[in-house]
Amino acid sequence: MKAFFAAFLALLQFLFTSVGVLPYKTDVDYGGTPYVEPVARHLLTLIENGESPYSIVISQNAEPAEIKAADELWFYLEEISGVELPVFSDNAQAPTGHEIIVGSTSRESELSVSLNRDALKHDGFILKAVGNNIFIAGGSARGTLYGVYTFLEEQLGCRWFTPKVSYIPEMSTVCVNAELDDLQNPSFELRRNSALGTNERYQAQKKCNVSYWTNNPVYGGALTYVLWDVTLTKLVPDSLFDEHPEYFAYLSETGTRSNKHVCLSNPDILEIAVENAERYIDANTTNAKHIHIGQKDNTDYCECENCTALYEYYGSVSATTVIFANKLQEALAEDGYDDMYVTFYAYNETRNPPTKNGLVCNERVIPVICGSHQACHSHPYYECGHIDGEDTTFMGRFGDGRLEFKEAVEIWTDIAERTYVYEYTINFLNSQQFFANFATLQPNAKWMMEEGITGITYTCGDGHEAAFNDLRNYLISKIEWDVNCDVEYHMMDFLKAFYGKEAAKYIKEFIDLYTAKVTATTHAFDFEWHYQSCYFTLGEIKRIDEMWKNALACDLTERQRFEVEKSELSWRYYKANLWIGEYSFFNLSGRAAENEKLYDDFKSHGLTHVTSVGGPMPEKREVDFFWQRPIDWRQ
Questions:
Q1: Which pTM was predicted?
Q2: Which of 408, 397, 283, 395 is nearest to 348 (CA)?
Q3: Which end of the chain is more exposed for a tag (fewer CB within 10 A), N or C?
């Protein structure tokens, strides 16, 4: 009764806040340590009026990524100032006292400079001024490359916002902090965020170290996979089903076997899986050290007597997956593949960890936790606990959440040496509607790091033209590297460059208001319909319309105007789906024309889908623009 009364109060708060009776906080905290502009008491002048005493020094035995780091430093300094600094190897000339020393060189011993390399993780780096020299040194060649990009970004003002939008300043005098002494290590050892249109260079500029299929030493290599995603079909092929149905899932509902899943308790399939895994490892050309176990995207797990007994004994359906992954890793090690990691999806039916009788992951077995797929994204994972699907009931929507994902993460990190999170941060069902999760990106990532999560692989950047996804990808790369970064600082940095300095404030105002209203009134899930989002008052709708009108009235470049128009489509999409304003049925003479214009604007701005899980928008001749809303423009 107490829980029901609390839920009833939450319902009243939702209603009164939605209609504007109750106020809500609109000053959104996006998280992180507030950025303080560094004040350098002393400066080193690298370049002045077209001249420089500096040279770039690398080792005579430099690795490809260290050579690339020196090349990139040379390239961008020339872009900034027009001056080309000479590049020497450390054995080609004696120290000059005015050098930018890149990577591991003999200069440290020659100049009696001690860099704290012991404090560096694999991708970490040191930026240090010693006298008139500057050292850029990584814990690895890749770390050195990251160090160069960070030096260019934080000392000289370079920015790489998207694969197509960057900012390189132009100045005749180039100065840096003479007291520079910066050691950076990543918050997560694995960081994946593959924005639409990305390449290896842009990945390195964002300090993302996962590129599933390519391992280019020029960019320091990458964490690659022998197999990734849905891989059980390769380890235990569906072609075996006709002859050996017992290798596959028993479904109690039908009393039959199905190749929708594998019977992981069947002892015969391990030998098959090991043989196929080793065949793929031998054929791999990227020096990959990860091989993945991924089930098909369904919940048709095996319910045979053996599997069911293991689920009950260990307290979770994931038990057979953990056991199978452990055995696969052990078999590979026995056959000489002892440097391989085996990862597996903790997804759908396997998302929750085993909780009984001491089942743990081997040291080289890594869960890839996918539980945020069901979690609310408008409130931190560790506070909310509301689950997608349960919000259709009264108690599920307004009652207390179950904190299932929080508790699962705590246990997975307890029973596994390493844990990766497969993060979902867009609305797949309505990808063109603004997904108000910017305020939880930083607190969620910080919490995961503190719980012991060692990697984040962000899936929603690839190929998804979701609303504001360019901004989201940029922020996530910053957060994956440093969970304490000032998100609002990076957000405004991006908005000013991407949309123009004048328009940025209006778009930020839209993001703030939308985020605040969602946070105050609802829960955001990555599979939600248009009517599950927040509801704005007539006054708020008018205010948001003015925000976009003002943004478009600013002095914009052609590219900036295109991006402002494209982002405004998310708001027009929202209004059209809820019959608001110009899309109302009360606008009998203009509704169809407004919907048709919205359709045309989607197409002219390169948007062909309103969802990330369905087909493209139908041909224009197939759409009834009076009766159909944009939510119906899917195949």
A1: 0.95
A2: 408
A3: N
In this structure, what are the phi and psi dihedrals at residue 97, rounded to the nearest 5 degrees? 90, -10
What is the pLDDT at residue 249?
Answer: 98
What are φ and ψ of residue 98, in 5° steps? Answer: -130, 80
CB 175, CB 44: distance < 8 Å: yes
CA 427-444-504 angle, to 5 degrees, is 65
CA distance 361 to 329: 10
> What is the C-alpha to C-alpha distance for residues 294 and 230, in angstroms, rounded to an integer?
4
- pLDDT category of residue 344 using cuts at 50, 70 and 90: very high
Distance of CA 437 to the CA centre of its chain: 12
Query: Which residue type sits at 512?
Result: D
CA angle in degrees (0–180, nearest 5) for 86-90-96: 65
- Measured distance CA(130)–CA(335) in Å, rounded: 50
CB burial string 109-119: b at 16+ within 10 A, e below? eebeeebeeee
Q: Give the C-alpha distances (Å, rounded to integers) separating 129 from 98, 352, 398.
A: 11, 49, 56
Q: What are the backbone angles phi and psi of residue 141, rounded to the nearest 5°?
A: -60, -40
Contact predicate 117/139, CB 8 Å: yes
- Mean pLDDT across 395-417: 90
Alpha helices in 213-318 (DSSP H): 232-235, 268-283, 305-314
Per-residue pLDDT band for 410 (boundaries 50, 70, 90) equals very high
What is the C-alpha to C-alpha distance for residues 51 and 35, in angstroms, rounded to an integer? 33
Q: What is the pLDDT of residues 518-548, one digit of tens each?
A: 999 999 999 888 888 899 999 999 999 999 9
CA 340 to chain centre: 25
Burial class (CB in 10 A: 0-12, 13-18, 19+), 509: middle
Domains and their CATH numbers in the chain:
43-186 (3.30.379.10), 504-632 (no CATH)
pLDDT at 15 (0 to 100): 63
Element (DSSP H or E) covering residue 126: strand 125-130
**Amino acid present at 60:** Q
